[in-house]
Every structure is written in C-alpha cells, then in structure tokens.
Amino acid sequence: MIPIKIGIIGKGNLGTYLLQKINKEQLLPNTKITAILDEREKAKVELPAFAAGYECAAFHDIDSFLQSDIDIVVECSNIEAAQEYSLEVIEKKDLMLISIGAFAGSTFGKLIEQAAKTSGNRVYLPSGAIGGLDVLKAAKFSGGIESVTLTTRKPAHSLTSEGIPAEQTLFDGPARDAIVQFPKNANVAIVLSLAGIGVEKTQVRIIADPEVTRNIHRITAKGSFGEFDLTIKNNPSPDNPKTSHITGASILAALANINSAVVVGS
Ligand SMILES: NC(=O)C1=CN([C@@H]2O[C@H](COP(=O)(O)OP(=O)(O)OC[C@H]3O[C@@H](n4cnc5c(N)ncnc54)[C@H](O)[C@@H]3O)[C@@H](O)[C@H]2O)C=CC1
Ligand SMILES: O=C([O-])CC(=O)C(=O)O
C-alpha cells in the first residue's frame, strides 16, 4: 500500500472533519494530512497553532505548500479558492476537489483537464452529498440519457436568511445557474452534471422548507437504460448545517479508493 500524504486547503467544517478522522482517529491506513495552506492575512496568527494540534505544518504560500512532501491536495474551502489554486496544484500534485461548483464553467474544466493530462496528475471529484453518479456514468454507455433532474430541499435557514412560513421554491432552472445563485448549496448539481448530461441540460429545483431538518436531494433520470429515482435524506453537519454530514465521509471514501486493490462501483 502506497502511503498518502495530504495537503488540505480549508480548515472549516470538512477540513477539520478530515483532520480528526485521518490524523487523530487514523481511519485510513497509511494516510496522513501533513500540510495546511491558508495564504490569507488572518491565518498568519491562528494557523500554526491549529496545524500543530493535528501534527501538520502550516503554510502561508502556495509554492512552499506544493514543494512540501505531499502527494495530493484536498480542497475543502470554497469555489473561489478552488478556482484560484487548481491549476497550480494540478501541475505539481494530484487534486481532490469538493467545491465542485468550480467546474460549472466549461473553460475552467477543460483547462484543468488539459493541465492534468500534461502533468500526468489526476483530479478526483468525490460524490459528496449525493449518490447515483455510477448509474449516470453507466447510462451514458447504454444508449444515452434523456433527462436528469435534481430537487434539493433543505431547512429554510440553510438557504435563506428570511423567515418563511411555508416551503418556497427559490430556484428552478439549469444546474449552470443554480451554482451561481447557491454556491454553497448546489455543488451536488455540478457533480451530477459532470457525471450525466452537463450543466445546461441538468434541471435543478431548490426548495427552502421550514418543516424539514435534513438536506434532501432527489435525483431522477431517464434514458434508454430505463429510469432512475434516488432520494437521499442527509443529516446536516453539526458544524455547518448547509453541508451534509456524509460529504466528509465521501472524501474519505474517495481517498480510500486511491489505494484500493479492488475498486467497487464505477
Ligand atoms: N460537493 C459536495 O457535495 C459538497 C460540497 N460542499 C462544499 O465544500 C466546501 C467546504 O465546505 P465546509 O467545510 O462545510 O465549509 P466551511 O465554510 O465550514 O469551511 C470552509 C473553510 O475554507 C476556508 N477558506 C476560504 N477561503 C480560503 C482560502 N483562500 N484559503 C484557505 N482557506 C480558505 C474558510 O475560512 C473556512 O474555514 C464548500 O465550498 C461547500 O460548498 C459542501 C457540501 C457538499
Ligand atoms: O451538502 C449538501 O447537501 C449539498 C451542498 O451543500 C452542496 O452541494 O453544495
């Protein structure tokens, strides 16, 4: 088994979850987070002590972060940071990205794909808060997909600061626009689009619902393979209710896959 040394960008809810599960609980054999990057001014004060608490090195500039002894960078920050750093990262290291909304524009996606081909490094996009990507990927080889829809229903406070008395559809349109309006809630729409029929054709509804306590994603698809209907009712992360708790576990599963002798699912 090849040891994996990870550098992370973002030490919020998901970053801290990974530090806890990988470095403290040692859930992934032979895997360690060794570096954390934050170039922002405020990080100069707080990052070193935080990083030391997880036996990691703190980095304040991308060049020395990438020169350090890491094999893969795991991004868990936001779409802007993902876009800012991805190209530089992929030229030198493998990259796992969870702010997948960064890939909504085709130019960025193509740029990163080309850079990955040139460098020989790989980009991993975990399934995050949803499932069913395996079915869509297979369906594309099985005569094609006619339609894909995603209906996201979240507790109202995760989607809007306005108190609403009853459920309200806040968005109805293509995934391409969903991520622009909901950059912290529609990353799943983009990974679904990448697995299936793209950001223009993937139809998304986002509903704020004061009656629900979970982050609910229903995916439907039709094609020559048949029909697909999957609903996942995720518990929110305790530290960031917008983010479903399973998202961090999905990153762990994607990291475990890198080293698996037997890979289950596509
Ligand atoms: N693909 C998926 O299924 C899902 C993706 N996400 C996305 O994952 C990302 C992380 O989620 P959480 O950890 O819950 O968010 P969070 O808000 O708890 O943590 C993000 C952290 O990144 C830090 N950050 C922002 N800009 C940075 C920069 N330039 N350099 C270093 N650190 C920076 C913030 O200070 C914060 O600590 C978000 O973009 C979120 O929208 C969340 C849920 C599901
Ligand atoms: O965690 C979730 O349920 C989905 C989410 O926020 C996203 O895709 O950005």
TrEMBL record:
The active site is at 217. Residues 10-126 form the Aspartate/homoserine dehydrogenase NAD-binding domain. Pathway: Cofactor biosynthesis; NAD(+) biosynthesis; iminoaspartate from L-aspartate (dehydrogenase route): step 1/1. Residues 166-251 form the Aspartate dehydrogenase domain. Belongs to the L-aspartate dehydrogenase family. NAD(+) binds at residues 129, 187. Its EC number is 1.4.1.21. The iminoaspartate product is unstable in aqueous solution and can decompose to oxaloacetate and ammonia. Gene3D superfamilies: Dihydrodipicolinate Reductase, domain 2, NAD(P)-binding Rossmann-like Domain. Specifically catalyzes the NAD or NADP-dependent dehydrogenation of L-aspartate to iminoaspartate. It catalyses: L-aspartate + NAD(+) + H2O = oxaloacetate + NH4(+) + NADH + H(+); L-aspartate + NADP(+) + H2O = oxaloacetate + NH4(+) + NADPH + H(+). It is an enzyme of class 1 (oxidoreductase). This is L-aspartate dehydrogenase. Pfam families: Asp_DH_C, NAD_binding_3. The lineage of its organism: Bacteria, Bacillati, Bacillota, Bacilli, Bacillales. InterPro entries: Asp/hSer_DH_NAD-bd, Asp_DH, Asp_DH_arc, Asp_DH_prok, L-Asp_DH, NAD(P)-bd_dom_sf. It comes from the Bacteria. GO terms for molecular function: aspartate dehydrogenase [NAD(P)+] activity. Keywords: NAD, NADP, Oxidoreductase, Pyridine nucleotide biosynthesis.
